[in-house]
From TrEMBL:
Belongs to the glycosyl hydrolase 2 family. It comes from the Bacteria. Residues 196-254 form the DUF4982 domain. GO terms for molecular function: beta-galactosidase activity. Keywords: Glycosidase, Hydrolase. This is Beta-galactosidase. It holds the Pfam family DUF4982. PANTHER family: BETA-GALACTOSIDASE, BETA-MANNOSIDASE. It is an enzyme of class 3 (hydrolase). Gene3D superfamilies: Glycosidases (3.20.20.80), Immunoglobulins (2.60.40.10). Its EC number is 3.2.1.23.
Length: 374
C-alpha cells in the first residue's frame, strides 16, 4: 500500500500537509482533547502520512483493515469512529485489543440524510428515535455491551422482513443477507397481529440459550452459537395472548414478556423529574402513552393529544419520535406514534410554584402530572 501510494503522481492538494495544518489549528483552540478523524480508507490515510497528524486514527466502517494497520503501524492508537453497530463490528473490537472503542452511527435518529421520499425527513436506523424513545436496537446493544443477563423481544411480520420460514423447525431463515449487515432493528415491541399471521420474533440476548413460550406453550429453544448476529429468531403464527422469552444464567432466570393489548381507554403520563429549578433553563420531559383497560401500553393505536399546562412554565414543544412526523413541534397538540408522544416544558426565570399537566384526546383522559418550580 505504501509503495503504491508513493508511486502516484503529485496532486494539487497534499493530504498529509493539509491534515497537519488542520490539527495544528484545532490544538491552538483546544489542547484538552486528542485529535482524530473519520477516515474512509484508513490504509490510504496511513500510507499518505495523513494519519500522522492524528492522535487517534479513526476508522469509518473498515473493520477489515484493523489487522493490517496495527501490523504496519504498531505504535498508533486506533478506534472505530463510525460503525454500523452489529455484533460483527463489536466483535472486531474484542478480537483486536489495539482498537479500543467504536462509535455507532449514530445512536439517535436525526434530521437530514433522508434517503426515501417525503414525508420521511431524516435517518432512523438508530437506538433512539427522534423523541429519544428506545427502539428495539437499544435492547440489542444492551445484550452486546452489558454483562448482566438480558433478554428482550421484538416482532415483525414475516412478509417483507428479509427472512423465510423453515416450516419444519419454525426457524427464521435468511432470504436476504442485507438484514444481517445493519442490525439497528426496526422490530415492533408489541404482540398484536392478525390471527394466524406469520410473525418473526426476534430475541436479542447475552444468554447462551433462550426458550420461547406462547401462552405457556414452548416454541423451542435457540442458541447464540447458531446465530452469527446474536439475535435469536422464531417464525410464529400469531395467536393472541402472552409471548415470553426465558433464559437461565448461573441459577438466575431472566425473561421478557409481550402481551396482546385491547383498545386504548386512557392516557398515561410520566415525567422524568418532579422539580424544576427556576433558572430559565431547566427542562422536564413528559411522556404520554396510550394504555388499555389492564394498563398495558397500546402501541398499535394513535390519537391526537392536547396537553393542558397550567403554571409558570414554558412549553418548548412536542414530538412523537416518528420519521414521518410533519406536525408542528412548537405546539401543545400532536398525534401519537405507536401510541406515544413527548411534551417538553422549561422553567421560567425566577418563577416558582406548582405546575399541573394533563392530556386529553377524543374519549381519552390522562392522569395528572405535578411539577414544582423552585
Amino acid at each position: 500500500m505504501i509503495a503504491r501510494y508513493n508511486a502516484l503522481p503529485d496532486r494539487k492538494f497534499k493530504l498529509a500537509e493539509t491534515a497537519k495544518r488542520l490539527s495544528k489549528w484545532v490544538k491552538e483552540m483546544d489542547q484538552t482533547r486528542p485529535v482524530t478523524a473519520n477516515l474512509i480508507i484508513p490504509v490510504a490515510s496511513l500510507a499518505s502520512g495523513y494519519a500522522d497528524a492524528l492522535d487517534v486514527v479513526g476508522f469509518s466502517y473498515q473493520t477489515n483493515q484493523y489487522h493490517w494497520s496495527k501490523k504496519n503501524y504498531p505504535n498508533k492508537l486506533f478506534t472505530g469512529t463510525e460503525n454500523s453497530g452489529g455484533w460483527q463490528d463489536w466483535n472486531s473490537i474484542i478480537e483486536n485489543p489495539m482498537v479500543f472503542s467504536m462509535f455507532m452511527w449514530t445512536g439517535i435518529d436525526y434530521m437530514g440524510e433522508a434517503t426515501n421520499k417525503w414525508p420521511q425527513k431524516g435517518w432512523d436506523g438508530d437506538l433512539l428515535d427522534f423523541a429519544g424513545f428506545k427502539k428495539q436496537g437499544w435492547y440489542y446493544f444492551k445484550s452486546i455491551w452489558v454483562n448482566k443477563p438480558h433478554v428482550s423481544i421484538g416482532t415483525t411480520p414475516l412478509e417483507g422482513s428479509g427472512f423465510e420460514s423453515d416450516s419444519l423447525s419454525g426457524k427464521a431463515v435468511v432470504s436476504s443477507k442485507k438484514v444481517l449487515n445493519w442490525n439497528n432493528s426496526k422490530a415492533n415491541m408489541h404482540w398484536n397481529y392478525k390471527p394466524g399471521e406469520l410473525v418473526v420474533v426476534e430475541v436479542p440476548t447475552n444468554n447462551h440459550v433462550v426458550e420461547l413460550f406462547l401462552n405457556n406453550r414452548s416454541l423451542g429453544s435457540r442458541s447464540l452459537s447458531d446465530n452469527p448476529d446474536r439475535i435469536l429468531r422464531w417464525v410464529v403464527p400469531f395467536e393472541a395472548g402472552t409471548l415470553t422469552a426465558r433464559a437461565g444464567f448461573e441459577g438466575q432466570e431472566v425473561e421478557s414478556v409481550l402481551k396482546t393489548t385491547s383498545a386504548a381507554v386512557a392516557i398515561k403520563l410520566s415525567v422524568d423529574k418532579t422539580t424544576l429549578n427556576s433558572d430559565g433553563y431547566d427542562v422536564a420531559h413528559i411522556i404520554a402513552q396510550l394504555v388499555d383497560k389492564d394498563g398495558l401500553e397500546v402501541k398499535t393505536e394513535n390519537a391526537e393529544l392536547t396537553f393542558n399546562v397550567d403554571g409558570n412554565v414554558k412549553v418548548l414543544g412536542v414530538d412523537n419520535g416518528s420519521n414521518d412526523n410533519i406536525q408542528d413541534f412548537q405546539s401543545n397538540k400532536i398525534i401519537t406514534s405507536k401510541g406515544k408522544a413527548l411534551l417538553l416544558v422549561q422553567a421560567l426565570k425566577d418563577k416558582t410554584g406548582k405546575i399541573n399537566i394533563k392530556a386529553k384526546a377524543s374519549n381519552l383522559k390522562s392522569n395528572l402530572v405535578v411539577i414544582q418550580a423552585e
